[in-house]
Structure formats: C-alpha cells, structure tokens
Amino acid sequence: MNTIINFSKKHPALSIVLGFQLFRLLLLPFMGLMPQDAYYHFYGEHLSLSYFDHPGMIAYILRLFTTVFGKTVFVVKFADFFVTSITLLSFHKLASYFLSKQKALNALVLLSSTLFISILSFNSTPDVPLILFWTLSLIALYKALFQEQKTYWIVAGILMGLAFDSKYTALLLQIGLLLFLAFSNTHRKLLKSPWLWMCLLISALVTFPVWYWNYQNDFASFLFQSSTRTGDISKFEFKPNFLFGALGHQLFLLLPILLCVFFNLLFKYSKRALTKFKLPSAHILFLLAFFLPTFLGFFLLTPIYWVKLNWMMPSYMTGIILASIFISKKLIKSHLIISLIFHLLVAVEILFYVAPIKSDDTWLGWEELTQETEKLQERYPDTFIFSADSYKTAACMTFFTEQKIYSQNIIGEPALHFDYIGDDLQLLKGKDAIFIDSDKRFKNRDKNDKPRKDLTDYFTEVEQLAPIFIKKGDKDIRKFWVYHCKNYLANK
Questions:
Q1: Would you kindly state where each structural domain of the chain is located, as residue ranges?
Q2: What sign for the dihedral angle of Cα 95, 101, 105, 110?
Q3: Is the pTM of this model over 0.90?
C-alpha cells in the first residue's frame, strides 16, 4: 500500500491514467455481450479478405484472442481493452513529440479519462483497431517528416494501409498528409519526393485484400458505404435534431470541457487564417491536418445528415494534443471531476441496470434469450431459428449456441454480411422455423396484435407463441415476440 501511495505522489498523472484503466478492467467481467461484439465475432468465425459493412481487422483480432484464450464474452471484451491500452501508450508517444513532458502527460490524462476510451475498451467495433493504427501512422509520419528518417515512409505506408483495413474512415490519413504538405511552406517540396509516393503506393498495396473482396462481390461494401451515405446527404434538408444529436454525442464522448476546448481551437485557428492570412508552425499545422478534416468536416454535415457518434473519433488524437497546449490545470481538474461522475454513473448502470435501455443495443438478455429459444425447439423439433433486425439478434444468438442462426435474408430482406457467408437457403425449403422479434419499447406482456405479412409471404402457416421475457431480479427488462412458422417456401 505504501508503494502505491508513494507512486501516486511522485507520478500523479500516471496514477490517474492507471486508475481509469483499472476501473475499466474491473468492469469487464460485468459487461454482457453487445450486438457489435457478437457481429464482429461472427465476422471472425467466417474469415474473409473483407466484409460487407467494413474491412476485417476487428474480426481478425477477435478471432486471434478467442482462438488463444477461448470463446467467452470476457475474452472478446478483453481484446478491445488490450488494443485500446496499446492505443493509449502510442498516443503518449505521439504527444511527446509536440509537448513538454508534463503537457504530454496532461494529454494522456485527458484522453484516458474520456468516455470515448471507455467505449473502445468495452465494445468491439472497427474503431478499436482504426484508432490504434491511426495513432501509429501519425508517429511514423512524424518521424518521416520532421526527423527525416526515410525508412519511416515505408512504415507509415504499411500502418495507413492497416488503418484502412480497419475502417474506410482511414482514407482521411492520406488526405490529411497531402493537405499538410500542400499548406506547409517547409515541407511542400516533399510532394515531389519519391518517398511520399512510395508511401502512398505501399498503403494502397496493404489495402489490396479489401479491394479484391469488393471486386469479387461487385464492390458491395464500397457501394453500401458510399451510395447510402451520399444519397442521404444529397437531400440537403436542414434537421436541427441531427445537429443537437451530434452535439450530445460529442459531449458524452469527450465530456463538456474538452469539447468546448475543441470548439475554441476551431475558432482560434480559423480566425487567424481568415483575418491574418497566417498559417501556424509546421508542428501545429501537422496536428491540424489530422484534426480539422475529420472533426470539422463531419461536424459541418450534422445539420443535414445523421453523423454517427464514432465518425469523429480519429480526430480526437491530434485534437487532444492541440487542446493540451492551451488547457489550464484548473480546467483539467474540472474535466476529471466530470469524468469521474460520468464513469461512476456508467458503472452503476452496468452493475445494476437502473435505467432500462429501450433498444437492442444492450448487453443484457442475449444468452437467456438463446437458452429460452432452444427450450422452445424441444417442443418444436427440427426447426431452424431466425430473426429480422438486420444483424443484432442473429449475431448474439449465434455467439451463445453451436447451431446456425439465420437473419432476415430468410424473408427476402438484406442481411448485411449474413448474405455473404454462402448459405444456400433453398436447403431450408419445407422446414419449420422459430422466428424471434424484439419488442424494444414494450409496455405490456401481451402478444403482438399486428399481422406479420413478412412471415406469411414465406411460410404456409404462422402461429404466434407466448412472448419470451428477460428478467433482472423480479422485473421484466426485455421482451421478444415468438412465432412458429411452418413450411418455409424459400425463394417464391
């Protein structure tokens, strides 16, 4: 105990960072499976060069951890925690290139105390490896640009490619690099350097598996991520609720003080550029090049388009370094107090579930649902199980059972990567099924009184069974409608 106390006195910043990480590690065993955990684990059980929604890096990580340590919810969560811990170490290294020793530690404290890091530590998403490889890419680019270590152009190319193999948002790394070179008077000459173009070529080569998978599958993933997004943006309809929703997300992820500092940075540097026509130093310009396009770019879309809470995350890495240049110790202390309050509330919710979540994006009930559904199969033998909520129920139930769980492609609806694992649905023709459907905002224990034409179009007879209820203590916290469907017609 004395050793811990002495360490805390000598290294208060590191003690805070370690405290937050210990807090997260202790909460891991109490975190149930999230749909995203299950879906990307499902990716990993069907290894592929890439996948319909995203590239496959998170799938490969989960497959590695569950192969080595076993297929459990804790191992999946620990994989996220482990990768995010490496991200924190990498961030501190990056910050040390731009800040004094104390300010680099302040930056690490700011980052480690955000709910953004807690989410990455608890929930499997492509952002987990993206943020790691994004940070490592910036370290390599710094060494190539400012320390003129030419071999790091090769390293940067590999890391930027791996970031793209994590999530398509990583393309903003190449954009940020080119913007920095275009605006930097001292580095603009590198636009003609063969090292730069070799770096970009290597990054493209590392992404080859993603491109080849798309080529084999009619560019399905690229079309899904591009046409869907651009189609919504092209409407140009002002929606204030989108703007306020994005602000709420960022307040939650970064916490209020850090978000306000971010907006102050935007105002400060925009005003300087527009009124004085003066660009900052090369080091600051480098940080801005990987902050502004992502943070400001997505934020400007928020009044007309629903920008998801995680899209701005890569910008935080250089944004927090910039914030640490100006933020006072008083504001850091206030940020930490707010962070502690938020994290305690998160812990109470995880441990006691005091605020029921009216959504399928929850960590409770999936294993119990699987067990109850398999009991139903004893009453209705030779049935297969399917759901129709895109991926969530099917992926979660797949995690907790050895049998195949089908998604909404059974009834002719697009089912994300469930459409790409090679299932021949014709083999199910004539079989009976159990259909599970979540009543997200249930108000009573009644059956569903709405007809299910989506089911009767694909089965000759549909019987609604008693709903399945998931309890916490004596209280119903989740409800699932259940249907026994006879004689699957397959593709009619």
A1: 2-352, 366-488
A2: negative
A3: yes
